[in-house]
Design goal:
Length: 379
């Protein structure tokens, strides 16, 4: 996707669109309350850039988080992560969770939903995107929305945003070949074995960064993980470029950032819009019998043809609390991972447990939107 085909809207046109979507008084409502609960909210530096550079209609687009376009409008991942780190009360507040997990791990948890990236001027034609500025939802919300919706149309037409067609990182992670950031298939029809393979590539990469094996200056082209080059081998990026673009402060704790990203992928695998699992646990993990196995994966879903609002409902805090009541959930699975991380375990040590987390029932099962989440009328 060399350029995002959209339109530069006048303030008058955008005001009309917002009124239709959000109600006639929405443009004049305070954004402070919603902005304070948005996840990821971004760092103070990013918030400063947003306040300084955004036009009024870009700020107003933050309101779209209420329509279903954004499925990360509640700090659910922050709460799950906080609970993994023994936060018990008030964890639905992102700042409280950060006190337990740490700011850098929380930054990594947020990264999967809103990875920072830049675009060339030729790639940003017909958009509002500022190519000299790192793009994130917090800093360029209207640009973010344009890329997101263009990627959605691309995926709906059967195309997969990926490295080969130069799609932006945001497009690839939500609708393309990097949907494994969220424990999802890249497209309908992808086998469970293939999605599992991609997820495990990401698990290995993030763990090796988290354990300090891969450093900030490690070139992604030099990462020796089978299959990794398919996704990042020609990017020209380093670990630093991938995880900390536009935010140098994260570089001093890159290990925590990478571990947070790994946790996000694991946590998403327990959201029903992402993965369908069996109801009951099969018992203990075969290779790590001291640890309980979560329910096995029946199907990895693909986001490309899902109804956004239906997906968002299962990413909500209410849905998480229902799953949290079960014996095996994202928190109980995450705690042993934290133990491994605190002990500085190698990938070879932790891999058997992560293999257990992503065990599939039938490797040949093909991905779909999922009956409960498919767009009405779609095949």
């Amino acid at each position: 996707m060399r350029s995002v085909q959209g339109f530069r809207h006048s303030p008058r046109f955008v005001r009309l669109c917002l009124a239709l979507v959000l109600g006639p008084t929405s443009a004049f409502l305070s954004l402070e309350a919603k902005g304070s609960s948005l996840s990821p909210r971004g760092t103070k530096v990013e918030q400063h850039v947003a306040a300084k550079n955004d036009d009024w209609w870009q700020r107003a687009f933050l309101k779209l988080s209420q329509t279903g376009v954004l499925h990360f409008s509640e700090p659910v991942h922050e709460e799950i992560t906080g609970r993994i780190f023994d936060c018990e009360d008030g964890c639905n507040d992102a700042d409280a969770s950060a006190e337990y997990a740490g700011l850098f791990i929380i930054a990594g948890v947020r990264w999967n939903d809103d990875p920072p990236f830049q675009m060339l001027p030729s790639e940003a034609q017909h958009t509002s995107c500022k190519t000299l500025q790192t793009i994130r939802f917090t800093t360029q919300p209207y640009c973010w929305y344009q890329i997101f919706t263009a990627a959605k149309k691309m995926a709906a037409s059967g195309q997969v945003p990926n490295a080969a067609n130069h799609a932006p990182l945001l497009a690839r992670s939500h609708f393309g070949d990097l949907q494994f950031f969220h424990s999802m298939a890249s497209q309908d029809g992808e086998t469970a074995a293939e999605t599992q393979r991609r997820v495990m590539i990401w698990m290995e990469f993030t763990w090796r960064v988290a354990s300090g094996e891969y450093k900030l200056d490690t070139k992604l082209a030099d990462v020796k993980i089978d299959g990794f080059a398919q996704f990042f081998g020609t990017s020209g990026w380093t670990v630093q470029d991938l995880f900390t673009a536009g935010n140098p402060a994260l570089r001093r704790r890159i290990t925590d950032v990478a571990f947070g990203s790994l946790l996000h992928t694991v946590e998403d695998s327990f959201a029903e819009g992402h993965v369908q699992r069996e109801e009951a646990s099969p018992g203990a993990c075969s290779a790590t019998p001291q640890l309980s196995a979560p329910p096995r994966v029946i199907e990895f879903h693909s986001y490309s043809h899902q109804d956004e609002k239906k997906h968002k409902e299962k990413d909500s805090r209410a849905a998480f609390l229902e799953l949290f009541a079960k014996p095996a959930n994202a928190v109980t699975v995450g705690k042993p991972l934290d133990d491994y991380y605190e002990k500085g375990a190698s990938w070879e040590t932790v891999r058997p447990y992560i293999d257990c987390i992503f065990t599939v029932v039938d490797p040949t099962t093909k991905a779909s939107a999922g009956k409960e989440f498919a767009i009405e009328g779609a095949e």
